[in-house]
Amino acid sequence: MNVTVIGGGAMGLYFAAMLRRAGHGVTVVGRADTVAAAADPLILDHGGVEISVPGVRAVTAIPADAEPADLIVVTVKAWQVVEVAPMLRSIVGPRTAVLPVQNGVEAGADLAEVLGARHVLGCTCVVIAQRVGPWHVRCLGAHATVEIGALVRDSEADGHRSVPGTRPRSAAALAPDLVDSVAAMLSEAGIGVMRSADIQATLWRKLMLIASYGGVGALARQPVGVTRAQPETVELIRAGMREVVAVAQAHGIALGESDIDQIIGVYLGFSSDTTSSMQRDLAAGRPSELEYQNGAVVRFGRAAGVPTPVHDTIYAALLPGESLARQQQASNGQGRGAGGSA
Hints:
Elements: E1 2-6, H1 10-21, E2 25-29, H2 32-37, E3 42-46, E4 49-53, E5 57-59, E6 69-74, H3 81-84, E7 92-100, H4 107-115, E8 121-133, E9 136-150, H5 176-188, E10 192-195, H6 199-220, H7 224-227, H8 231-250, H9 257-268, H10 277-283, H11 294-304, H12 309-331
Parallel strand pairs: 1-2, 1-6, 2-5, 3-9, 6-7, 9-10
Antiparallel strand pairs: 3-4, 8-9
């Protein structure tokens, strides 16, 4: 299969290595340093073993004469999805599937608005990957697991229901056999795959986790082992999760109290040194996905008239650091474009 990976950060290099090892033709669209390093085999480090993966191509832009891709994996940061979506049109054919792996609930809708929902999968992804060099990625712990599903269910394909928020859905759903094909490709590449019957609920369940524990962890500046040792802090995280459920329900998403119990259990089961990617970015003074995590809860809450005091506080408290990081990035001329890491 012909695979294009958008973004040469940790997630992009990880998916490129895994899919290439399974025999697929893989092209990474990344920054100049990624392209220069691609003269050598891509290195995947897992379990202390470095695996050389030759044959992965890297480019700084999609070639004008590029053939349609069978699969496009979009791994840039959430705020970059809108930027890269138009450039994908040239490689989206009738049988192309697009897989966004960002945190949050909006990446699939952003892509569907430009490319049509008939091409876009909803996806949540769990993996700890670090980019340790321009062409070298390290996977810490288990290999990735994803949960995927069509953005539009068959029962909705001829209806008028919208993705939560303001973006309309395309009337056509991704063909079931394309979902099967993507699931098979990922599974054969060593990536765990689960199928979601309701991907919108799956996406909001993930948002409930990352925005709540990640936002509180960023405020506390502590990993999970420290935050979960304080009953008051655990209750604050649970309160944040309740807000996400209330907002989701107001937008017609099927979440309930049992989902809170399940997700708080996931948080309590994390290793003690766990931090969220947003927390790490903010601590390092880098732009983060604050707007697409806590900011999204606040925005969707306001749209539905649902109060979100926990996420209002997290968002307002973290926003100065986020704004400063973006100002510094702009002044340094460090726009990340398609080469950003997810």
